[in-house]
Amino acid sequence: xxxxxxxxxxxxSALPYANGSLHCGxxxxxxxxxxxxxxLRLIGEDIIYVCADDAHGAPIEIKAAELGIKPExxxxxxxxxxxxxxxxxxxxxxxxxxxNSGENKHYSDLIFExxxxxxxxxxxxxEVTYCENCKRTLPDRYVKGKCPKCGAADQYGDxxxxxxxxxxxxxxxxxYCVVCKNKxxxxxxxxxxxxxxxxxxxxxxxxxxxKNLQPEIKNFVFNWIxxxxxxxxxxxxxxxxxxxxPGEEDKYYYVWLDAPIGYIASTDNxxxxxxxxxxxxxxxxxxxxxxxxxxxxxxxxxxxxPAMLIGAGFELPYDIVVHGFLTVNGEKMSKSRGxxxxxxxxxxxxNAEHLRFYYSSLLSKTMSDIDLNFEDFRKKINNELAANIGxxxxxxxxxxxxxxxxxVKDIDQNKQLISEINKxxxxxxxxxxxxxxxxxxxxxxxxxxxxxxxxxxxxxxxxIKEDKEKVHxxxxxxxNIVKNLSILIQPILPNFSSQLQKQLNLENLKWDDIDFKLKxxxxxxxxxxxxxMEEKEEIKKEFPLNLKVAxxxxxxxxxxxxxxxxxxxxxxxxxxxxxxxxRQHYSLDELKNKKIxxxxxLKHAKLRGIESQGMLLAGVTENxxxxxxxxxxxxxxxxxxxxxxxxxxxxxxxxxEFLKLDIRAKNGHxxxxxxxxxxxxxIVRVEKVRDGA
Length: 693
Hints:
Structural class: alpha+beta
Number of helices: 19
Radius of gyration: 29 Å
Helix content: 25-40%
Number of strands: 35
Shape: flat
Distance between the termini: 70 Å
Mean pLDDT: 92
Low-confidence stretches: none
Largest sheet: 6 strands, antiparallel
Oligomer: single chain
Strand content: 15-25%
């Protein structure tokens, strides 16, 4: 499927929100995008892949306030975590940035002014939701209530997560302030509006002309346009974490105005580093812009964003690829059911490339949900990746090294096999272009199966005794199939591909290197690159606690209790607040930066008016005179604490249920049912208490 290679291509993924950790659902999109990007690079396209943390808005402000830190500190911490997660999942951004940047402020103001000059922005007084108790206007994420369209409870003030309806905070039924839980009132406030209603015809024209967009998505958007587009409120009252609107003291851009502009800002940041021009990507009709998004943000990306681009004179997307949600074992991800996994938690037990392979075997250009079924996951890795691809590559290279000193001379001219493989290669190229990764994986497996069948049918271990030269040619053809597989699977499994090419004594192979011309070449040492996942052993016992190492990052005395401290803790992928009764046993200085063990699945409770989001563990002597914290030396914040032979549970635990557990101090260690609490790096020890409760 020949494609032009003269145009610049810009690819983006949706901006992850900077108030928390990435989870396995997020990774569907970034893996999908990265596979597509790696393929385009492999075939020689002029492409950059940009993204950024979405760092503005009410949820950032809320989370930072909960943790007792400034929003700037929160987004810096989350940015660092996100970057590491993406790196470990092999997501290859050319530029990963933040919306809280000078470039984003510049382009937000530029687009705002361009729209204003064209009379596409105006102001009017509107009713807003105001909390008299908190003394502030409530932005979308500060107010919850029932959806005015479908009646779903506990929905935020801008969009319903149940039916995807978009509305105003004042439209919510039975609203309440998420901070103090009081019922808000309505007040009048001046706000800025973008004339989205003026763009119905232009948006319809773009949707009709763009043949790349998914038909089912276009039908959604056509219905929204048909029902009438309302002008869009693009401002928010302070206090608000974001960019101030020019000329205003207490009005800010709504996060959904400057968030997608983050695509342009990240491009600009990249271009400045590489002596390129941003306008060559965003104001050039020959550039192809691809957005990858989830189905929950269709409204913003198919209406607001293209209308803003049209109005401000920027190019429209060539394609917007929409994917579905992730379920786990057939159910919506849920912490209480133990089916919610952060990206980091997944990596503690599984290989990132295994998930890339699994997702790719399910993904196509549809918005159907995909399911992470762990039994199916294990079978795919064992039966397809390990037993088919991995086994074939290892068999060929090890046999060549053992019998021919790794030398490839000539190849067997098996025209039928080469023809069948070449047909599959063309199909795979088409599959990648069309984002039909399900079929790409199937066809790659077909090629590997062809190789396995060819190798097995010729029985080189027998034939070598009769016709060594013939066997050498069979191995020559087989090695060429291995080489081609290393290129074909590279977008999905970049590390495996690189390691396999190293074993072949080759490197940095491109799509154009797919052929059957590798001759007179010596390969390197073979190694097993893919091992089977173990069968899930029957778990004999369950440990109802979900324990993690935490680091105390801030601590103060409880204002209403002499025996209590209020502390902020770092759990690796999140921060929480704890209230603990250890004030008579530890000074503030002793606790700062200390590593402790925390029960993370304990039901949150208020202690003398301040919420405790978990509980630290401590030992106590029999006379109850001495208390000593459970601690570790080498482990880091977020590391899992466990018992050998037990599975930690994540279901919420009540304090009464916790009290039934008999964890004791013995010889300075924490013991449960005869086993020591441990991490991968330490045995948990108990300070000050050698033996006790």
